């Protein structure tokens, strides 16, 4: 139980700082969410690549808790009963701390967006474009899911939830900080005003809502996620322990003096100190020869912010044409899984799942597109009855003749090319400049609200 208590308490306490993926935002018409519509924009994907290229993936976040801050624990033996500290070491208890950190091996980094509709869907059914003037952007962040996330299935059978500090039984712990880049964020102080993390900002731009289209104004923010394997390492501050000697932070497994204390955190007793690589500011032990008792898959996610603490945002008018009138079904063409339903208008095809191919000659893209908001072809059930062997294809229009279904080519995922993301406000250039000039990795504490 010591293992589970220590790991759980530290991981739960870390959850309140920053991190964990945010669910994709509200749904647009059809099955695509607002985040999907934004993410599919080539321009937005280019912005995400710009950001990724400016952040060094070798620099990793960590959370630490000094032993002096362990609440309801007067001495270490209450947690680590096999460890007995003599009086001299007891005085030095403030020099020891625990660090929740990621093993650099196997780390994965990803980025996603959270989208919010500033202006609800509006149908422009007329024959003229409408001019929209946008004056405000609202970014919403789900602070309930920002923090460390750790899979503790091997220890306590569940995953952590967010919170500034948490406890199991009589034991409670709180972290001093999560450290990433040049930012040290205090535990439990993510700076958000509420659970929604709403942040408003004045903007001023004008864009057209195209004729015969559904339009909406969307603000989005960027979330970066770092995933890997976390381990809990006991660390000593050499300057604190030996004031007359120079030194920095070191894993206790690298110093045989603290073998009893360090052995409580490792699978095998530390019989011989073994130094390993330098992990940022820490002289690490040889992880290939000493296994930690406290390891777990973990992730750390945070909202990218400017130096003033406000989330990096962009805002756009997103438009998509109103649903087309769908021609009647004629019948299946092709064989087996390559079958497609031919429609009455030349060049039109349909497949299950709301997939349509509209030729360029009829103001289409000439490629398969998913339109869940379009009606099924009339007569589909009788002319193109359900067939378990037929699945939605993603193929270009390259039929040999008008009566043959398009050839198969699944190398590229289908995109809804008719959706237009017209960006009017964008703070990514500010962030890119900030990342070039600082080391904060976009990890900045949110401004404190009055």
Radius of gyration: 28 Å
Strand content: 25-35%
State the low-pLDDT regions, or none. Answer: 1-31, 72-84, 152-173, 188-195, 394-400, 408-414
Shape assignment:
elongated
The largest sheet is: 13 strands, mixed
Q: Gap between N and C termini, in Å?
A: 42 Å
How many helices in DSSP terms?
Answer: 8
Category from helices, strands and their pairing? alpha+beta
Mean pLDDT: 75
- Give the helices and strands as they follow along the chain: HHHEHEEEEEEEEEEHEHEEEEEEEEEHEH
Number of domains: 2
Helix content: 10-25%
Total E-strand runs: 22
What report would you give on this structure?
Keywords: Signal. This protein is α+β, with helices and mostly antiparallel strands and 450 residues long. It has eight helices and 22 strands. Strands 1, 2, 3, 5, 8, 9, 11, 12, 13, 14, 15, 16 and 22 form a 13-stranded mixed β-sheet that branches. 38% of the residues are buried. The N terminus is likely disordered.
Provide keyphrases for this structure:
450 residues, alpha+beta, 2 domains, 5-stranded antiparallel β-sheet, 22 strands, elongated, signal
In short:
This protein has 450 residues and is of the alpha+beta class. The chain has eight helices and 22 strands. It folds into two domains: 2-312 and 427-437, no CATH class; 322-420, no CATH class.
